[in-house]
Amino acid sequence: MRNLFPILMLLLLFSCYSDDTLDVPVTNPDDVLQTELDNYIEENFTKEYGMAIRYRFNDRFVEPFQRVTPPSLEVIRPMLDFIEEFWIEPYLEVENGEEFFRQQVPAEVVLLGGLIYNEDGTVILGLAEAGASVTLTNVNAIDLNDRDWIDLQLQTIFHEFAHIVHQQFKLPPAFETISPTGYTSPGSWFNLTDEDALQRGFVSPYATSSPNEDFAETAAFYLFDTEFEENFVTDEPDCNDPDCAARNEGRELVRQKLSAIEEQYLKFTGVVLEDLRAAVQRRL
C-alpha cells in the first residue's frame, strides 16, 4: 500500500425551498472548484503555452508499486515561479527558443511533493512520457537558497525536456557508438560512482543506463552545472597516474557526445545550446 494520505473534504450544502420539488442540475462529483491559483495557472500556463499544471494528486501519476508524497498547496506558486524563471524564460530569450518551446512544451506538468521511491530502493527524480507529460518531484522541499535543491530540479527539468528532443527527432547519428562499452546492464547503474562514470565517458552513473539517458543527462548537465567545463570538458594537466589518465579519456568521450548533441539541437530545433546554457547560467 502506498504511503499516501490525501485529505478528502466533503462540503454539504443545506437549503430550504418553498417548493416540494428540487430541480437542479447534477454536479459531477469529480469537479473541483476553481481557485485563484487555478485561474493563475489557466492564464499563465494553459492559455499561454498549452501546458496544464497538475498539482492535485492522482493515483495515475505513479505506478502501483511506487511511493510518493503529494505536494503542499503553499509550495505550488513558488514552484511555478521557479519553472518560469529557469525553464521557460531561458528558451524565450534565445534565438528560435520560443518557437521550439511552444511547439514541444509538454501538455501536462505534474508536481509531486516528494521523490518517487521504487521497490528496489532506487529513486525517480522525474519522468517524461513521449513529449506529452513531464513529472517534477520533491517540490515540497523548495528552497531557493539551497543550491543542491536548485541543481536537482534543473537537472530533472532539462533532463526530461531533453528526452522530448530525442523522442521527437531521434538520437544523433552514431551517438550510441561513442562509448558503447560503458553502458551498464539493466538495473545496475546505481552501483557506479561519479568517478567510475566519468572514466567511462559519462556525466553521471545514471547516464550509463542507456543511450537515451546518456543524451538527456549530458544535455541537462551542460545546461545547469556551473562547473561543467571544469568537471567534464577540460583535461587535467600533468596526469601521472592511471585514474587521472582515465578521467581525461572519459572527458574526450563527453566532448564528442556534447558536440553531437549541440549539432542535433541546432539542426532540428534551431537552438544554439551554448546560448541556452548562458541564459540559464545568468539566473544562477
Largest sheet: 4 strands, mixed
- Number of E strands: 6
Q: In whole angstroms, how far apart are the ends? A: 40 Å
Oligomer: single chain
Q: Based on CA inertia axes, which overall geometry fits?
A: globular
Side by side, the strands of the main sheet go: 1-2-6-5
Written account of the structure:
With 284 residues, this protein is an alpha/beta fold. It has two domains: 33-143, Collagenase (Catalytic Domain); 170-284, Collagenase (Catalytic Domain), CATH 3.40.390. It is 45% helix and 7% strand. A four-stranded mixed beta sheet has the order 1-2-6-5. It has a two-stranded antiparallel ribbon with strand order 3-4. Strand 3 and strand 4 (123-124) form a beta hairpin. The longest helix has 28 residues, at 242-269. The protein is globular. 33% of the residues are buried.
Q: Secondary-structure blueprint of this entry?
A:
Layout: H1 36-49, E1 52-54, H2 76-93, H3 97-104, E2 108-111, E3 116-117, E4 123-124, E5 126-129, E6 133-136, H4 147-169, H5 194-200, H6 211-224, H7 228-233, H8 242-269, H9 273-281
Parallel strand pairs: 1-2, 2-6
Antiparallel strand pairs: 3-4, 5-6
Structural features:
two-stranded antiparallel sheet; alpha/beta; globular; 2 domains; Collagenase (Catalytic Domain); 6 strands; 284 residues
Give me a quick take on this structure.
45% of the residues lie in helices and 7% in strands. The protein has 284 residues and is α/β, with parallel strands linked by helices.
